Amino acid sequence: MAKVLQFWNLAPAPGGCPFAHRAWLALEEKKIKHEKRIVSKENKPQDFLDAYHSVWPDKEKNATVPTIIDTDGTTVTESQVVVEYLEQRYKGQGTQLIPTDPAHAAKARMFGELFTSNFAPGNHGIMFSKTQQEVADAKAKLVHGLQVLDTFLTTQALQGGPFVLGEHYSIAEVSSAPFVWRTTFLAPHYRNIDVFAEAKARNLNRFLEWTQAVLERPSTRDTAIPHEAIIEAWKPMVPKLS
Ligand SMILES: N[C@@H](CCC(=O)N[C@@H](CS)C(=O)NCC(=O)O)C(=O)O
Question: GST N-terminal domain location, by residue (predicted)?
Fold first, then answer.
């Protein structure tokens, strides 16, 4: 049995995958000692494959990160499940990522869902589109998504701080921070699009306040690997525009 929790994530670096980045943020926020293990898509070591398929028995599916093996051998995969597991297993340690109040916990989780359906598709579209028109459509979709998130934050977030739960950083931010952080440099680099300038032009001030707090959070800063490494990793995946 390993002495510290094993945290499998993707080359080129521990933050290479945004989903693994969620788990890394949770480990940092909860101050959980861990060892980082890196796999590449092309070359997955047998101990990683064995751990993954011990809990996800579909051998036809790619084994993905994040996958963790805790000190007692508990193996968990899927980013949201990993974050929830870490919160429950290490309750009382570091940041409480899921509040005790069920209504507040639901609010944090709802924001995570809203973020996934309103930020991810436009953001994904900007990067993977093949024509200028498709990029423009994806950008419009993302701007609409930012408006929705701004409305949620204005009307639903708790008072007293920049986060969804006011001054309390939670699972809402852990789920979304890796994607927000990447968008600050990937979209400008590959598509010359600054979505935060778009938000500013539309006075989406609550969304911008939230974004700034997320980016300035020590866990975001401490897990921010050099932009160049991520930009390089994306190179083969981003189509040239026609
Ligand atoms: N739904 C999964 C997605 C994880 C995922 O797609 N991970 C990618 C890297 S970002 C991966 O491990 N890919 C390995 C492969 O496709 O072979 C989660 O939330 O953990």
Answer: 16-94
Task: Provide φ and ψ at 240, rounded to 5°.
Answer: -75, 140
The string of pLDDT tens digits covering residues 176-224 is 999 999 999 999 999 999 999 999 999 999 999 999 999 999 999 999 9
Confidence check: pLDDT of 15 > 80: no
Q: Are 32 and 63 in contact (CB under 8 A)?
A: no
CATH superfamily of 5-89: Glutaredoxin (3.40.30.10)
How remote is the CA of residue 19 from the centroid of ligand 1, in Å?
7
Q: State residue 163 phi and psi, 5-degree precision.
A: -85, 175
CA nearest ligand 1 atom 14, residue: 64
**Alpha carbon of 9 to those of 32, 90, 179, 183, 239: distances in Å?**
16, 20, 16, 20, 25
Mean per-residue pLDDT over the chain, rounded: 95
State the Cα–Cα distance between residues 129 and 214, nearest whole angstrom: 27
Q: Report the alpha-carbon distance of residue 40 to residue 27 in Å, rounded.
A: 21
**What dihedral angle (degrees, nearest 10) is formed by the CA atoms of 235, 44, 182, 158?**
160
Does CATH place domain 102-237 in 3.40.640.10?
A: no
- Residue 60 to residue 63: CA distance in whole angstroms: 9
Q: How far apart are CA 41 and CA 136, in angstroms?
A: 31
User: What residues flank ligand 1, with Cβ below 6 Å?
Assistant: 10, 17, 19, 41, 62, 64-66, 78-79
Q: Domain boundaries in the chain? A: 5-89, 102-237
